Amino acid sequence: MSIVKSEFVLALNQVSTERGISTDDIISSIEAAILAAYHKEFPGTEEDEGLTVKVNKETGEAKVFKNKVDITPPGFGRIAAQTAKQVTLQKIREVEKKTVISHYQSQIGNIARGRVIRYDGYNAFVDIGRVEAVLPKEEQIKNEKYVVNASLVFYIKEISEDNFGNSRVIVSRTDPKVIAELFKKEVPEITNGTVEIKSVAREPGERAKIAVFSSQGGVDPVGACVGQKGVRVQTVTNELGGTEKIDIIQWNSDDKLFIIASLSPAKIIDVEILKGDGKKAKVTVDEIQAPLAIGKTGINVNLASKLTGYEIDIKQVPASPEDKKKYAEEKSAREENKSKSE
Prior knowledge:
Layout: H1 8-19, H2 23-41, E1 51-55, E2 62-66, E3 69-70, H3 76-105, E4 111-119, E5 124-127, E6 132-135, E7 151-161, E8 167-172, H4 176-186, H5 188-191, E9 196-203, E10 207-213, H6 221-226, H7 231-239, E11 245-250, H8 255-262, E12 270-274, E13 280-286, H9 290-294, H10 299-308, E14 311-317, H11 321-341
Helix pairs in contact: 2-3, 4-7, 8-10
């Protein structure tokens, strides 16, 4: 009984060549599947010993043997042919999946634009080209909506296995490296090495700080990342949903100066690097600048701490009468300008 008759050997070799599967592996899989099909078709043979299946590589003919005696039932060819087809297709799918996963293994650390396929209330599933990736809840920006067909940029974070042992590509919208990769895409000076990203800190969806540096004289790394009229940083902000404010800070090898810059827009009086275990710093600001240094719910000082690697303690001191007066005048002017614009 022939499975695909004269076309079998051609199909076998074509599958082997195109998909990178050895003909021996395909034949072995087909024989095992046909044997299982035989047991299913003829109950009561499960306990039989000495049952084997042999598939002729040249003709596709499949025969069942017991202790080397041909016991192939009449009409079993149709079942064998169907089983062989299913096994071959399954083998092709397995190899293709491994190839795709291997491709994305080399893409870890990059960003890719993807389209949301579905959202189950916890995970979002995304088409990123050759595979359906998973955006877990913990990798999602708070309050960001993942509606079907939405086009977003995702960070390819890792390849992991689900509970059934299947490999899956995990993507992220919250990883700090999303911002670094977006700036690499938007800023040619980063791509060509003129400007270097030293560190990134994020509160996804709210605020982020990125420290940049250039060893080449005459190059303004902050200006390069901001872009003319802020177009470059605005493009990155838009890719993150439009609500995440990004502070671009010039990195400094002097830790004190770096900490001062990281706490912008607050004006700092003094920074003291504390001795002892860990990296700790005490930062002195006046009472007027303290809210800016700390930020709403502590976001500014927390991001500065992540960016610099220092645990930062803010110490407030009374502001001078002159500073209080100046601050009151500036506040009044801001409020007046705001009311005029409205």
